[in-house]
From TrEMBL:
Protein name in UniProt: Anaphase-promoting complex subunit 4 WD40 domain-containing protein
Taxonomic placement: Eukaryota, Sar, Stramenopiles, Ochrophyta, Bacillariophyta
Family matches, as InterPro entries: UTP4 (IPR046351), WD40/YVTN_repeat-like_dom_sf (IPR015943), WD40_repeat_dom_sf (IPR036322), WD40_rpt (IPR001680)
Any GO BP annotation: maturation of SSU-rRNA from tricistronic rRNA transcript (SSU-rRNA, 5.8S rRNA, LSU-rRNA)
Taxonomic superkingdom: Eukaryota
One function term, GO molecular function aspect: RNA binding
Length: 402
């Protein structure tokens, strides 16, 4: 299990420990007390006068795609271990001439045989990557351009978000067209109907707010659906095959923001990540840089959201504001109508609702993703190195003071 970290001129590869190696960390604790130490496998330096713009690693970790401001690059990765040390060898793969364009977004299919490349000019290039375990073939893979989508190109704006369905049959790409964004669905390899393969399938209708992230949810036991999150923290589910909103979103209605808990609607941030747990296809997480909240499609939408952990300073501040607001509302209601029974004033404790719970456990998140069933990884940016890198504050003497 390999994770990449892209920098201006290099890509660092880290190996994530297995759950067996982490058994001593958890030990039935409610929270992870110690951060996991990932092992740096190696770094791939890109010698170019232009900075890297995007990168993506295949699900098996055997291929790496990257792009700077000039061209697309493709590498085959081989991992070698000697004693306790591990290293990675990157071998350049030949990229077809018609695919040698700078890209703003790259995405591998779940099976690793397809690479979607969103170019800076707008067109989307679909590359076919032959699967092989023969190390002698590395560097000579027959990379083929399957299709170049241009039907969606109107103002030559680059793609900002891409996702491929779990069965590798659908590609979704989003750009920031027309202020509110534009999302297009493309059909990839369709085994049921070959006439629909590699075609522009459906432009999604514009939403009330620009989209900020998108992904496919569902999978093995639940039919796959496209989830699109907006900058106002609302989200919608789409049935791609039927070209319509899903039954869940149709039942909720539009606009969805009015049906959401107030704590979610007033979050001073917007979601940048949408990830789902393979073990529970009906659940997914919407995360920003400072928090994420849990959505369970099988449960009703609560009137208010809870916070975890409740001792977090942000949670306490929000709780106090809510208590003050509730107290004012209760006082106004009591002035309008006085109860004749003392029992009517007793407040019954409702069971804790876990749906739409806001998690404040992590902050300054750079990455959030599920890497297995019930196994999630979060990468945070520590503030201490940032402060250390800042210049010393200016100090000036004031007249009359020591």
């Amino acid at each position: 299990r390999i994770m990449t970290m892209m920098r201006n001129d290099q890509i660092d590869l880290y190996r994530i420990q297995s759950r067996k190696d982490l058994s001593g960390i958890f030990q039935a604790e409610k929270e992870v007390q110690h951060a996991q130490k990932t092992e740096l496998v190696g770094s791939i330096e890109i010698k170019s006068s232009l900075n890297l713009m995007c990168s993506s690693i295949s699900p098996k970790g055997d291929m790496l795609a990257a792009s700077d401001g000039a061209s697309l690059m493709l590498f085959s990765l081989t991992y070698m271990k000697e004693n306790d040390d591990e290293a990675v060898i990157a071998i350049d793969e030949r990229v077809p001439l018609e695919a040698m364009h700078p890209c703003s977004c790259l995405h591998f299919s779940p099976d690793g045989t397809t690479l979607a490349c969103g170019t800076l000019d707008g067109p989307i290039i679909i590359l076919s990557l032959p699967e092989t375990s023969d190390k002698s073939v590395q560097g000579n893979r027959m990379v083929e351009v399957k299709r170049i989508f241009t039907e969606h190109v109107q103002h030559a704006l680059p793609m900002t978000h891409m996702a491929i369905s779990h069965d590798s049959q659908w590609l979704v790409a989003g750009s920031n067209d027309h202020f509110k964004g534009a999302i297009h669905v493309f059909a990839l390899e369709n085994n049921e109907d070959q006439s629909k393969s590699y075609s522009h399938w459906w432009p999604l209708p514009q939403l009330e707010s620009p989209h900020s992230c998108l992904s496919f949810i569902g999978g093995e036991s639940v039919e796959s659906a496209l989830a699109v999150a907006c900058s106002d923290n609302s989200f919608y589910l789409f049935d791609v095959k039927e070209r319509s909103l899903s039954e869940w979103s149709q039942d909720i209605g539009i606009p969805f923001l009015r049906k959401m808990p107030q704590e979610i609607a007033t979050i001073p941030d917007y979601p940048v990540r949408l990830v789902s747990n393979p073990a529970e296809p009906s659940k997914f997480l919407l995360g920003s840089h400072g928090n994420f909240f849990v959505v369970d499609l099988s449960r009703k939408i609560p009137q208010s959201s809870n916070y975890y952990p409740s001792r977090d300073l942000r949670s306490k501040r929000t709780w106090l504001e809510k208590q003050t607001s509730d107290a004012k509302d209760w006082t106004n209601k009591r002035k309008r109508s006085r109860s004749t029974s003392c029992g009517d004033n007793v407040v019954k404790e409702e069971p804790l609702e876990t749906n739409f719970t806001i998690c404040l456990r992590y902050n300054a998140m750079l990455f959030l993703e599920f890497i297995g069933k019930n196994e999630m990884i979060v990468v945070e940016q520590p503030w201490a190195p940032i402060f250390d890198a800042l210049p010393d504050p200016l100090v000036s003497k004031t007249y009359g003071l020591a």
